[in-house]
User: Fold this.
Amino acid sequence: MTIKAFNIIESTLREGEQFAPAHFTPSQKIAIAEMLDEFGVEYLELTSPCASPQSEADLRTVAALPLRAKVLTHVRCHLDDAKVAIDTGADGIDVLFGTSSEMRSFSHGKSVDQIIEAGTEVVRYIQSRGLEVRFSSEDSFRSEPRDLLRVYQAIDRLHPQRVGLADTVGIATPNQVFEMVSMVRKAVDCDIEFHAHNDTGCAIANAFAALEAGATHIDTTVLGIGERNGIVPLSGMIARLLSVHPELVAHYRLEILPELDRMVADMVGIDIPFNAAITGDTAFHHKAGMHTNAVLNDPSSYEIFDPARFGRERTVMAGHRLTGRHAIASRATALGLTLTDDKLRTLTSEVKRRADAGPLSNDELDELLRGSVPA
Ligand code: HCA
Ligand code: CU
Assistant:
């Protein structure tokens, strides 16, 4: 199925709060909500107001901000929780019920019929109060497909905005996600949300497979922060889509992704991971001679995105033993030096020889290049 349109449910303020070192202050939550809104996400999901008094206060504060994004909160599928959430100012409520045998035996001990009964009661209540509602099954990929379908179809008859599938333990493969979402797509009329954990590094691939199978909403967090090693990172999901369906992400303010990732990394006290798509430190760094030569000729040889789209710059490293003549020539030109071909070859060999003991700093390289040309 071609991906037509999709919505981001940005859960840094809910799943992201479940990241081990995360503890957002009220003003940090406001800053995150505002920057995500500026970026253009369609939804913000916030921690349950039942979690703590400050969580409820923060939900009310964020819900009252003049944002374009809709504000959701996330609660257990209990009427008591839904009642607390209903008049916080949130636009919608995401409810969650465990359907796997693991959850049914070790967590809440309910049968499929009881899940349907409780889900129906809560969904109807939220609808009667005029809010958007989503019903999600926790641990969907260790649930019996038969049970899942029964639950989703019963809930779909109530016409909620969405049902959600959650790979809570990060066990699913892209093919499994594709199959499961395709099956649900055929069984329900409402929209489908997908939530992917990253325990095996498949979160982005799984979310993409879900979209290809007809999911309409994807959960992300900034940097992918969340329970254990987190979920789908916003920048990575954008990169995945941008590379194949640029029209689907053209309306987002892509250039603020580096600032967004940096801000949240600082708040939770981590670095932006080196391998983060788009925002990782080395995402637009080129090193080996073969790469630098080609990139200096035409950046698209080794870059699928123009770094300028994200306010970033390409860097070509030259002072190391994997360097090549083009990288050295380019640095020389930047210094205003003109080198003959012979000189360039000798200098490149010299850099490689010296750099066998360790990379040259920029100053060391520049000194070597300047020294090679008579003043
Ligand atoms: C959890 C809940 C959840 C919920 C996902 C959803 C999960 O912390 O266990 O509501 O879609 O991963 O199942 O984050
Ligand atoms: Cu989760």
Notes: The chain has two domains: 7-268, 285-371. Residues 15, 168, 195, 197, 226-227, 231 surround copper (II) ion (ligand 2) (CB under 6 Å). The first strand starts at residue 7 and ends at 10. DSSP finds 15 helices and ten strands in the chain.
